Amino acid sequence: MRGLKQRHFTLGLAALLMASTAASALAQKPPVSIDGPIEQLKPGEYFWAPDIAPEGPVTLIVSLKTQRAYVYRNGVPIGVSTASTGRPGYDTPTGIFTILQKDKDHKSNLYDDAPMPFMQRLTWGGIALHAGNLPGYPASHGCIRLPLEFAKLLYGVTKLGLTVVITGDPSVPEISPAPVALEPPLADEHKEPTGYRWHPEKSASGPMSIVVSGRDNRIIVLRNGVEIGSAKIVIDGAVDATEAFTLKEVVDGDIHWFRLPLPGQKLSEAPEMSASDRARLHMPEAFRQKLLAILEPGATLLVTRDTLRSSGTGQTLTVIVTDPE
Question: What's residue 126's pLDDT?
Fold first, then answer.
């Protein structure tokens, strides 16, 4: 096993992951290492400490810039691994995905039956997580290669419908992506948007993901990878980059979102989203109430400056569609 021994991080993998603040530039060569246990992982190495959070929903975040995969359970980091994503011409898409299929002994349908151990499919077009060669730089046909032992461990803690977020380089703010409010509207200060769609019957159960696009002024709600709702939104201000959150709990309508640290982001002394941050996004009140009624701990929130429309300007963020047709 090429992973570092657990005694190296029994005092808290969370602290190690929280210490990761800078990202390495990607090119057709290995990323440049910087000081810190996460950045100094060599190709094929990983950390794994599931006892830090023995139970709860799992989320996976893959960074194309650092060639790392970060595993969170119940909002707590339990593992990080080196990875190899798509090489030029076979770029791994950024966006929010769900695990559509799992197969321990899968062989590629596109590339001469190439073995893909512990495959976890993210798109029906050929993007998946699986064990494979890790040269230290992007080298795949678009898949996310992982060390064999890490791929096996990850396979054991995931379920169909689990949320996977793939991020690229942090981007400067362009138009106001901000944390989702889910707060009562401020009618005296803002003109509230009214248009929305809500069809929870399209997917009655499963992991929930919420995507907020600042460029589109739109929020999308997915359950088990299927869109069940969307709405127009109004957002105050701007933030520095894409942000990811997990829902810890909802108590009497009070929502507690906690940040999932992304590579290159400075950590806040208060990891929980503040009330002022939550109040920056405004949505139709009827939509807000419907969303509140079905939110459960473990839901994932991704806030992005990118567009969700293929015809939009700027970088397009992929939002997975589970229908193979």
Answer: 84
Instruction: Note the maximum CA span of the chain.
Output: 62
- CA gap 116, 132 in Å, rounded: 7
**Number of neighbouring beta carbons within 10 Å of residue 283:** 25
Identify which of 202, 250, 195 has the alpha carbon closest to the alpha carbon of residue 225.
202
Cβ proximity of 66 and 140 under 8 Å: no
Strand ranges in 99-184 using DSSP code E only, listed in sequence order: 101-107, 115-121, 128-131, 144-146, 163-167
Q: Please report, for residues 59, 223, 240, 242, the alpha-carbon distance to residue 218 in angstroms, rounded to integers and kept in the order given.
A: 23, 17, 18, 15
**Cβ pair 243, 220 in contact under 8 A:** no
| pLDDT tens readout for residues 4-15 | 443 333 334 444
Q: Distance between CA atoms of 247 and 21, rounded to whole angstroms?
A: 23
**Does pLDDT of 167 surpass 80?**
yes
Tell me how far apart the alpha carbons of residues 160 and 219 are, in angstroms, rounded to a whole number.
23
pTM for the full predicted model: 0.72
Q: Give tens-digit pLDDT for 18-35.
A: 443 222 222 233 333 334
pLDDT, residue 270, reads 64
- CA dist 222 → 3, 95, 203, 300 (Å): 34, 13, 9, 10
